Amino acid sequence: xxxxxxxxxxxxxxxxxxxxxxxxxxxxxxxxxxxxxxxxxxxxxxxxxxxxxxxxxxxxxxxxxxxxxxxxxxxxxxxxxxxxxxxxxxxxxxxxxxxxxxxxxxxxxxxxxxxxxxxxxxxxxxxxxxxxxxxxxxxxxxxxxxxxxxxxxxxxxxxxxxxxxxxxxxxxxxxxxxxxxxxxxxxxxxxxxxxxxxxxxxxxxxxxxxxxxxxxxxxxxxxxxxxxxxxxxxxxxxxxxxxxxxxxxxxxxxxxxxxxxxxxxxxxxxxxxxxxxxxxxxxxxxxxxxxxxxxxxxxxxxxxxxxxxxxxxxxxxxxxxxxxxxxxxxxxxxxxxxxxxxxxxxxxxxxxxxxxxxxxxxxxxxxxxxxxxxxxxxxxxxxxxxxxxxxxxxxxxxxxxxxxxxxxxxxxxxxxxxxxxxxxxxxxxxxxxxxxxxxxxxxxxxxxxxxxxxxxxxxxxxxxxxxxxxxxxxxxxxxxxxxxxxxxxxxxxxxxxxxxxxxxxxxxxxxxxxxxxxxxxxxxxxxxxxxxxxxxxxxxxxxxxxxxxxxxxxxxxxxxxxxxxxxxxxxxxxxxxxxxxxxxxxxxxxxxxxxxxxxxxxxxxxxxxxxxxxxxxxxxxxxxxxxxxxxxxxxxxxxxxxxxxxxxxxxxxxxxxxxxxxxxxxxxxxxxxxxxxxxxxxxxxxxxxxxxxxxxxxxxxxxxxxxxxxxxx
Length: 713
Prior knowledge:
alpha/beta; 7-stranded parallel sheet; 21 helices; 26 strands
């Protein structure tokens, strides 16, 4: 059977095995390959002299061949090819293994740019060697590119093959249609799409790369904003008004061991007022971790059930769905209301019963409440009397996914919860169709978590503090920004570091996997676990549950614990490379401790100097002095831009929001770019609600919002 025209199989050198390897990276079509952006760039334009070459780090040198290459056979079939090359500061011996065919390439007197590590030998380190460096012929009239792309690979794919295939698909960008309306592109001073794609993969220089990144970020924001605008139009149908009163809440509050805060009462009153109208509610409840959003959702679910309707709550992870179910089902059960949990691991027989009960027309036997993950989006899930849809952690679901659930529950009220204290300006852009309820008051008894900012000189004392807290019966979170060591070599530029200004030198990232091993060696008496986003769900869940049960004393983690189980016994949060996190993210992490009776602390460890008025120092000082999540969010937006509100740590990958994959927007530090994209999207859809006058843009939008099957498994 012939592969589709845009299949990756149609590229040179891609057979069934290579296609499978590409598929592991999510690449099935030539367009997928175009949008498989480099993770970093080798900075070969930064040429140095031999005498200045760094040790244990690759560098670029321009050397002239000074001796004829000579080959010799050693140890059976192995051959060595050697010659000397020089610059004004010295001479280097260059050796290649089993590459005799290069003998005729390095002609005496020719000049090459070599890329590799320089070994300095001899008493005064004045002798130089390079083993199998990469080389490009150097000609004054044909300048070489400064930045060479480095791609994420999977087993079976080589950089060479990806480079060759990328060259094939990039050739088509010269004649491609740009879907962005020309007047928007010119007004916003954006590059064409063809230029952006060519320069994100093969930048002619740093400025061109920054321009390419800016255009592609704008596209992601713009398509996302268009998608939101289109789904808003679908959600304007009338629905049924609920006859719910404040008195209906009494059975629920009677079950609670605490008094509702003023902020919770205000949010519930706003929810109730919405649900009493014929226009379906679209409301987002925003507040810090532990502020009591779930009780507000429970109140809304109770209002729905008391009105003879059904309610569904969808959470982004199995861990969070289970936690919601374990927290809410006993309360509803005591009120005579049945709730069920529907996740991927639910048995086939149980799934069948839940689906049948949801579609049961008899109110006496119908299932009133279901709590689950994206399994709620699967075929066969429907509602006989839809009343309320609740989604937790809004930014982790695409608009498309929320729309699917809404379509399964037509005309239902929609309530969204988010633990990200989002700035009002950003909330209006991202959630302009949602009314906003802010819970800005914490429940009585929640203690303030003392926050300290320290550098590496405190490492030994910090280890002692971890040991002390565990010895007293407490538990500790240690959060690292990466799963493994930094993807890029020190001589590479990460795509996230590309901006209008040249990137600053950055300290290496602490990695969860390696740091867990270091802690085990330093604190051998403690039980230490590690969890990160690349682990299988069952393994991750098992370790998190062991931590919740107290079997693991120290949990080394990436930011997957932002949305995790509630562990009241956790009293210390350590964040490594704290300067690399957004302030709102740090605030959420800090909210994971201080939830029990133990005195709790948050230690922000910075690998860079905290002296002076650097941005990093000012940001971390904000964390030390400020505990209001909304104030922190506003400062974060001003200092870092919107990217931190759209993604987690680097290793968690790209979250899908609205069907549009935030490949680059999650790296954005330009708030103006987000605002411009939303402003342009609103203006365009106001003038042409179906984009009938912009067929190329409509095609791009439909393609971006096509939900792939794996996103609902």
